[in-house]
Each structure stands twice: as structure tokens, then as C-alpha cells.
Inverse folding.
């Protein structure tokens, strides 16, 4: 399966990414760029986008990037630094880059930016790589 | 305004916390406990809850806890460690504890657990405390 | 080997913990408390303890705690929030608590405090648990 | 004062960076690259460099970068992902990049690499920017 095949299989089941309105810009080995637009139901008590929205967009880009090599990979650790408020109607892009691919653990930087390049959030994700492969069936393992 | 008044004012506008189905268990100075139930539209490509769901629940508890003292407070940094898969129909609790209240910065630990106490995620939040107060109007500041 | 035996074997080789002047207060399954005193050569450009000092103390407590179960464990991810300045001559305590012990990954909270309980730093550590055991010899694995 | 002047004033007092054997490669507005060599007294219980060593090197690069604009800046939050073991005699480089400069908060990525570019650790630092300026005297503020 190619990174694009794996993305399609994951995205078809990924109800929350669908709810977010996530669109694929590009996906490849260890990389993924996604886009979405902030809607009314994504706002928080300050009337700006809830912190969980930019996190979730980045987390989806991270998931597609770390699963792109063919083995199931799950999140161990994520960090996010919020650096700008996001408003209703804003378009957000999340760009995931793989910084290291280990045998059991891999490391990603994801930048969330507006279309003009203004940074919104800096996200990092560390993934645990299981032995189970996409397109095969097997017994689930625990991390 | 009491912590409960501030929670009510924030929650009334917080569309995303409403979408998550968040219910208040308790709120006080520097603390907040919330509850929600995982729905179909919250699942990811593995058929379990998207990492953004437990993050968002914890982030809301963090927001209500760090705003409870009366000054506007916004997130600078969050980390989350996912330690257990969350399934459709699972009830999640997020318990926010204030570990330090500084003049400009405050620090919180939020545990996301199932009702039997099984940990799902460990979240930490660092907030920047603005000068603007809840119940007053003023000019927005930048962090 | 008991947690105390493993601590002794690790500490005997741990040149940097020795340089820090680390003393053991207690060690058990998944827990460890250490103490040290800030010396002149640990100060930074502001004349207070370098951020790497409280980090290193906490990191040692994390290492002893996550190796205490008998399997080699190495750090995947650490976070530290600095909340108070540390001065020459200050005594620091680091208290490591295990929050989850998984098969491959385990999670720890470490608080660095002064003897009166004032918090200095909040540290979290995520460890990868190798198959190799203390007291046995074997082939090194990669994480 | 230029970034280089501020570096010199900080480094002259920074006993721990001196103990680490840190050498300046370059410093500019928001950036800093440092180098050091791992010595025997920096090893841990596994006989490799203690996690606090690469952290401290990165933390010094972060400190010089975030203070380079002329205002005193202190660490609020740091994260580090260790991705490769570091051995006795290894040369380490830490390269700090400023990703955002806010009025009160600024954000940095620091990569620790070996001279051939192999990544050793990914560090992120968030700084709180005080009003006090380098080269002036004033009353200390609290974050």
C-alpha cells in the first residue's frame, strides 16, 4: 500500500477528521499536509477557535504521516505551543515533517499556519510503531 | 464573579465544548472536573477515539481552571501523553489541578480517566495570565 | 535484583549524577526520591542555577524509577516547566512517581521542590522499556 | 548591545556552560549555535551521555537565542526528545532557531546533532520576555 492508499483507508473511517472538514493537500513517506476551515461550532468561550481544533488538525497530519510507512503507528506523546488566535472562517494548514524514523519510535514536527504563512501553533508528535501492517490482519499489541 | 459564574459565561459561548457534550462535575479556584461520552463522530481511522478528543476535553478543563481566578488566561503550552485507547461509548473524566499560580504564568496537571480510574491521558497546561478581567471590558493584549 | 540493587549498579557508573552530588533518599518499584545541593559551578548567566541542573536531577530520578522494575528503560521524551529560580546553596529534592507502567512504554511525573515544599520545576518523563534485563548480558536493541 | 555582546556578558557568568565546555559557533538575533565534546564525567549509568547533557547544551543555546534581542528572557517550558545515544568523545552541536517572537512569549526549536548531521535530540523552548534590558539595571520581575 502506498502512503496515499493508507491515507484513504484511514480517512474513510476517521469520523472526527471528516467532522473537522479536513482536506488532503499532500501525503508521502513520513509527510502529510492537510487543510481545514474554522466553523462556528469550533469556537471556545473567548469566541476564537478552541485549542483542541488546531491540535486535532495537527494530530491528524501526524497520524497520517507516521502511518505512511505501512506499519500501524500510535501516538505516545504530543506537545503544542499556541502562538496566535484563530478566528471563525480562518483557513488552517498543518504540515507534518518526519525528523527521525526509528524501529520502534518515530518523531515529527507539525506546523499549523494560515495560508499567508503566519504560524498558529507548533506541534510535535512521538509515535510508537507497532508490528501490525496496514492491509493485513493480526492480533492487536499494546504499547 | 465566582469560578462558577466564569464557567457559565465561558461555557455559554464555548460551541466546541458544547459539541463535545461536556458536563460540569465541579469547578473551584484553580480546579475543574468535566465529563463527556465518546460518540461515533469522535472516532479516528483505527475506530477508536481521535487523540484530539481526550486532548480537547482536558484543554477545556484547563481553560476553566486557569480562568477561574477572574483574569483572562490563555494557553501557552500543552503536552499530552496517551496511555490507553478510548472506545465508542466510553465515559471520560478530566480532572484539572493547579500546581502553581504565578503573576503572569500558571501551571496545571490534568488527568483524563475512565470512571473506574483507569488513566487514559496525562495532560499538562501552562497558561499566560492577562490583565483583563472577566466581567469587565477592555483592550485585548497579546502574549 | 531489587530496585535498590539496580540503583546501586547504575549510580556506581553514573559519573554525571555523582558530579551533581546526588544522594538517594528512597527508591522502590517505580519510585525514586533524590536530593542535591546547588554549587557555584552549576550557575548560569543570570547567577541562578542553570535550567539543566534541575532537569538533570529530575532526569536521574526518572531513570532510577523507570529502571527499577528490572528491565532496561531509556528516555523517549521529557518535558520541564521551570516555576521558580534556584540559588547557590539551595537544596533540591526530586520525587519521581510512576503514573502508568505499560509493556513497552511507561510514564512518570517528577516534582522538583525545595525542602519546604516550594515547587521549582514540574518534569514528566516517558520511557521506552527494552527487553534486556539488569544483571544479565545481551545484545543492545534500538528504540 | 549586540547579540554577541549579550552572549559574552552571559557566558562570562555562566559557570555551568563553562563546565560543559561550550564553544560559540555563531549567535545572532534569535539564533545561536553551540558546540561541546562529551567527557567522562558526563556519562550516566548506561555508560552513555546523561540525558541532562544534551538538554543542558540545548538549553544554553535557547537561553542565548532568546536573550539576544536585548530583553531578559527566562525559560517557561522545555521539551526534549532523545533519539540517539551519545558516547564518550562525541562532539555535539546545538542549533537554535526562533520560530516566533511575541511581546511576552517567544518560541524556539533547537536541534542537537553530531557533526555529520545525525540527530541526537529535538528540543523546544518557550521563553517569557521580561521588561528588564541587558546593560541596564532594574528591579527583578516575577513570571
Amino acid at each position: 500500500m502506498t502512503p496515499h492508499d493508507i491515507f484513504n483507508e484511514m480517512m474513510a473511517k476517521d469520523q472526527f477528521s471528516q467532522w473537522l472538514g479536513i482536506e488532503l493537500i499532500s501525503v508521502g513517506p513520513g509527510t502529510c499536509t492537510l487543510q481545514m476551515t474554522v466553523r462556528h461550532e469550533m469556537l471556545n468561550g473567548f469566541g476564537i477557535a478552541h485549542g483542541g481544533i488546531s491540535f486535532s488538525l495537527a494530530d491528524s497530519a501526524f497520524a497520517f504521516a507516521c502511518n505512511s510507512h505501512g506499519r500501524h503507528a500510535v501516538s505516545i506523546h504530543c506537545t503544542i505551543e499556541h502562538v496566535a488566535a484563530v478566528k471563525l472562517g480562518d483557513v488552517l494548514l498543518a504540515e507534518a515533517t518526519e525528523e527521525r524514523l526509528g524501529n520502534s519510535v518515530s518523531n515529527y514536527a507539525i506546523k499549523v499556519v494560515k495560508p499567508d504563512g503566519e504560524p498558529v501553533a507548533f506541534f510535535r508528535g512521538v509515535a510508537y510503531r507497532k508490528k501490525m501492517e496496514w492491509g493485513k490482519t493480526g492480533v492487536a499489541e499494546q504499547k
Observations:
- The radius of gyration of chain D is 15 Å.
